[in-house]
Design goal:
The protein is of the alpha+beta class. Helix content is about 45%, strand content about 20%. The protein contains five helices and six strands, in the order βββββααβααα. The strands form two sheets. Strands 1-2-3 form a three-stranded antiparallel beta sheet, with no helix packed on it. The radius of gyration is 23 Å and the shape is elongated. The termini are far apart. Keywords: ATP-binding, DNA-binding, Metal-binding, Nucleotide-binding, Repressor, Transcription, Transcription regulation, Zinc, Zinc-finger. Negatively regulates transcription of bacterial ribonucleotide reductase nrd genes and operons by binding to NrdR-boxes. Belongs to the NrdR family. InterPro entries: ATP-cone_dom, NrdR-like_N, RNR_NrdR-like.
Length: about 170
């Protein structure tokens, strides 16, 4: 690590702390040449491998751009996009891999997007799951309907099955 003041090529770590979520390490350093102190932030890099074989750093902004296209005309706000991108990144990092295929990033987006907006999910899924016919859309819609029927609609029910307001 070069000193930002005198450009000396070495520094000594004085203190290290992790961020609250554990994804970043903040290090306090001191230059042995000029004696000045400075801070560095270190985080584990996450690389996305594209179909062409090229690699680039993971970008939440690219996740937001792709999801925003799928959500065009839907009642979804910027905060929703930011939260979804964070969930996707956390999900990928939880896998413990340093590299991930771009296609797998798209598949990781599907779960949070499904919970956010089902229409946007279908739009996005049609690309990432390579829908080829109307039957593919019908199957996805049928699955969404089936899962919606399984979700409990009435959360006021008690253990005995009686509602609290009865």
């Amino acid at each position: 690590m070069h000193c930002p003041f005198c450009r000396h090529t070495d520094s000594r770590v004085v203190d290290s702390r992790t961020s609250e979520d554990g994804t970043v390490i903040k290090r306090r350093r001191q230059c042995p040449s000029c004696g000045k102190r400075f801070s560095t932030m270190e985080n584990a890099s996450l690389t996305v491998v594209k179909r062409s074989g090229a690699s680039e750093p993971f970008s939440r902004a690219k996740v937001v751009t792709g999801v925003r296209k799928a959500c065009q005309g839907r009642p979804v706000g910027d905060d929703d996009f930011a939260l979804l991108a964070q969930q996707v990144e956390e999900s990928i990092r939880a896998k413990g891999v340093a590299e991930i295929d771009a296609h797998d990033v798209g598949l990781e987006i599907l779960g949070p997007l499904r919970r956010l907006d089902e229409v946007a999910y279908l739009r996005f899924a049609s690309v990432y799951q390579a829908f080829e016919s109307l039957e593919d859309f019908e199957a996805a819609i049928s699955l969404l309907r089936l899962e919606a029927q399984r979700r409990p609609e009435d959360t006021t029910a008690t253990v005995s099955g009686q509602r609290d307001d009865q």
